[in-house]
Amino acid sequence: MIIEIRHYTLKTGRREEFIDFFERENRVALRNAGMLVFGPLRDLENPDKVHWMRAFSSIEERDRVKENFYEGPVWNKNIEPLVIPMIAHYEVDFTETTGGFEDFDGGTSL
């Protein structure tokens, strides 16, 4: 399984607005596009930081799903214009699970 661990530093005072938008609009759009989404998660040490993760069964699936989403109208018209102005900086850790990792369909270990 491929998991992106995403770290967003938001513009000062915009975290709750970002979380509200993410929970109301963005998470649904990402899931509808075929992404398994976890989060958002509030950073407990930085009031302007949010983390979230998204998972894919393979690199090929990730590439296909992301291309369709980011080239589509939902991202370009409904999400990007509203969310990008809230973000000061973001980083992505691109990871792959190990052999002992089981997804939700295969077992209980995460």
Describe the structure.
The protein has 110 residues and is an alpha+beta fold. 37% of the residues lie in helices and 31% in strands. The chain has three helices and four strands, in the order E-H-E-E-H-H-E. Helix 1 runs antiparallel to helix 3.
Sequence of secondary-structure elements: EHEEHHE
Main β-sheet, in a few words?
4 strands, antiparallel
What is CATH's topology name? Alpha-Beta Plaits
Please, how many domains?
A: 1
Radius of gyration from CA coordinates: 14 Å
Low-confidence parts, pLDDT < 50 over ≥5 residues?
Answer: none
Main sheet strand line-up: 2-3-1-4
Please tally the β strands and state the result: 4
Query: What is the percent of helical residues?
Result: 25-40%
Could you give the distance between the termini?
11 Å
The number of helical elements comes to 3
Protein structure class = alpha+beta
The top level CATH class name: Alpha Beta
Oligomer: single chain
Could you tell me the mean pLDDT? 92
What would you say the CATH architecture is?
A: 2-Layer Sandwich
Overall body shape? globular
Q: What percentage of the residues does DSSP assign to strands (E)?
A: 25-35%
